[in-house]
User: What shape does this take?
Amino acid sequence: MPIQFQFEPIFAESDRIVDGVLLTLGLSFGAIVLGLVLAILLVAAKSLLGRWVGLLGDAYVDRTLAAADTLFDPLQQLITEFCWGTVWTGEAIDRRTRSLVNIAMLSALNRPHETALHLRGALRNGCSREEIAEIILQVAAYCGIPAAIETMKLAREAFADDEGMGGRDGG
Assistant: This one.
């Protein structure tokens, strides 16, 4: 039986739970701390989902969450917390750079599905077509021509999709 992720009702329910806990415990110090912890967790969950949607788009996130089931749920939780939480919140490099690095790594690993997702995400993060093409040249030099050819095919598809959605003209 598929697990349905419905974040807004969960968030609303979390708010009601926090309020109920505080009232039940008579606003003791422990209850206030518990309420603060729950509030922080709620904000973090909303932030992770927003980061994920911002890179991959609403449709992809909706499809992924709708397809979750008891087998996939632990992996999806790991991806959401580790990749979108720990890794994508790092402050040493910006999102554009992170996107370009992902394109190179995923190309090297021959992961076309994930490469295609991150190509579209790179465009959303403000990477130009020229920057993406330069990354693909780096892939050719260090990972091989076949990897670069596959990534260029995927990049052309992402550029065409971006144009179809009113994206930048040429970069």
